[in-house]
Design goal:
mainly alpha; about 80% helix; Ferritin; elongated; homodimer
Chain lengths: ~170, ~170
């Protein structure tokens, strides 16, 4: 049993951990990419957005008096997944990387959608406003990745088929 | 280095493993849910759709002469993630379960989007048609879950706040 405020605080802690993980995943991906400059540039833009999102979530946590130190089980598993994805060296890693980025954006979209509803239920209009500010940035990044996935796939397949080119990064 | 056909076959094997995992995740979720009948009904509908999707992918694999036995690393990690999510017993598991379901649908959306492009590049119009048949079902399920996440969150928070009610399943 928990009050809406307690659940909200729990989920904000999850969001904090999630944005830390987003930062390390995005940085790792950007650093590795060489032959796909459009993807790299969009990831770099989202790293900047992520810093702003971290600030917004931290402000909500401070305001509600919650520390951001306790990382819950679910987020821990998401993080392990993210690390597995970010650190992998598969032959088609640019494709799997873009897919994993898209999937991670959707983790964030689901989280902030639930957080907006939870903040509303808890009567916390400041947290509601913060999450509503973040949500469109995550949606835009997810949409960009999915829209560009076909052309990225084609580019990868052409490079992969050419013995003189490196395809994976 | 690999031809478009080899990459396509690899990704179809991933899709096969993914749909097996989808089936076990969805069944586990449906079995646990008690107090959220609308969510349970939508999941049950998608289990039926998943059977049809498995058949389509298996037909593509047979046609291309590929076995479905080798599960690749990335999919193995996704499966571990799915099992962690599906088997978890968190206090807010209906919410995390719906979020995880939404995230998994987006894994599938990204996979079939890349597969459509790969089938096109490989000149395999039958695989292209099969993946284009599956994709809208995954999109519809993802959209349903995200649209219903706010009301599910509200229902959970009300139940969670009431000492006489069970909220999590």
């Amino acid at each position: 049993m928990a009050t809406p405020q307690e659940n909200l605080l729990d989920w904000l802690r999850d969001a904090h951990a999630m944005e830390q993980q987003a930062e390390s995943m995005l940085k790792a991906q950007s650093k590795r990419l060489e032959h796909y400059p459009k993807l790299k540039a969009r990831i770099d833009q989202h790293i900047q957005e992520t810093f702003g999102q971290q600030k917004l979530i931290d402000e909500c946590l401070s305001r509600l008096g919650g520390s951001s130190s306790s990382i819950k089980d679910m987020t821990g598993k998401l993080m392990a997944f993210g690390q597995a994805v970010g650190g992998s060296l598969m032959s088609d890693e640019v494709i799997k990387g873009a897919m994993a980025g898209y999937v991670f954006e959707n983790v964030e979209i689901a989280s902030y959608t639930a957080l907006v509803a939870a903040a509303k239920a808890a009567g916390d209009s400041e947290t509601e406003a913060a999450c509503e500010k973040i949500l469109p940035q995550e949606i835009a990044m997810a949409e960009w990745l999915l829209e560009h996935l076909p052309e990225l796939t084609e580019a990868f397949l052409v490079r992969s088929d050419d013995p003189n080119l490196e395809a994976k990064k």
